[in-house]
Amino acid sequence: MKTRTFLWFVAPSVLSMFLLIALPLVAVVWLALYQSHVRTEMVEIRTKVPLFGGLSKEQVSYVPQAVLDENGRPVRNWEFVGLRNLAQAAEVKDLGAILGQPRGEASLPDMIETMYRDITNLDFWSALEFTMIYVIATTPLMVAIGFLLALAVNRATERLKGSLIFVSLLPMIVTPVVSSLAVYWLFLDNAIVATVLRELGLGQVYFLKDELTIRVLIIAYGVWYAAPFAFIILYAGLQTVPKESLEAARVDGATRWQAIRLVTIPHLMPLFSVVILIHLMDAYRVFEPILVFNSRVFASSLQYLVYIVLSFEDNVHKAAAYAVLTVIGIVILLIPVLVSTWREQRSVT
Hints:
By secondary structure, the protein is mainly α. 69% of the residues lie in helices and 9% in strands.
């Protein structure tokens, strides 16, 4: 292929990536490094205050008013603040105060417990805590369940495969907000799950009013929603496993699970890496179930903090700082997987 033809071929993709990924990311970083405020000026306002006998008194007051440009829009002053917004969003000052606080004669376990509780009372670190719990808990479960589903469907008869694939993909077909609402409605105080448990004599269970149960529900939802993605990728990969290698393993006396461990899994390792990479990026940005479950007291996330700051504080710079910290966290999570994948590919070549 000629160079010119190749450039014309990739130009739409490069342009789309620049407009939809690179440019917004640069804008977010720029907002996180700057602080802005509307320029105001004091304006004299004269008002007449009525007095007795039909008399009036002129009262002069000075009030701040936004300075407008020639188009009638408020003029904003921009100031470069460097990492100040990031430090405020990450609550670095409060974190330092907690770490430097004297603990007296407390034992090491009590000291660590107290310090951990104080740190997780901060908004950013509380959100980071549950975000990491969600990522660490859902990733292996999602991969394992998706792989087992792929093995089960791959061994099903041709007549059943279509229906099984459709049913397995249903959670991924529904939008995250709708699927979150479906799970939320199931576990309301008077919904079907609590009612069945009550009828079985287990008493009233308040799933959405306890930290442990609401966190378990969000994690379970994350696994249920993400497992179909792992399933369809790994199921497609199973179709490429060399049958000769599987037959040779059986001839050598390997059991079914030994053949899976020694032949199938090594063959699918690149796909496992892809599934894990994509899920890590997606899980670190968990938002919909936390919003729908209204679980900010018990479980928050960095993406949810961005929503809260934009909706209630109207602070675009702090929200941009949270977004930049989220991107940094995703990059840190991806580095071990990328390095491991690069080493495997290097050893193969």
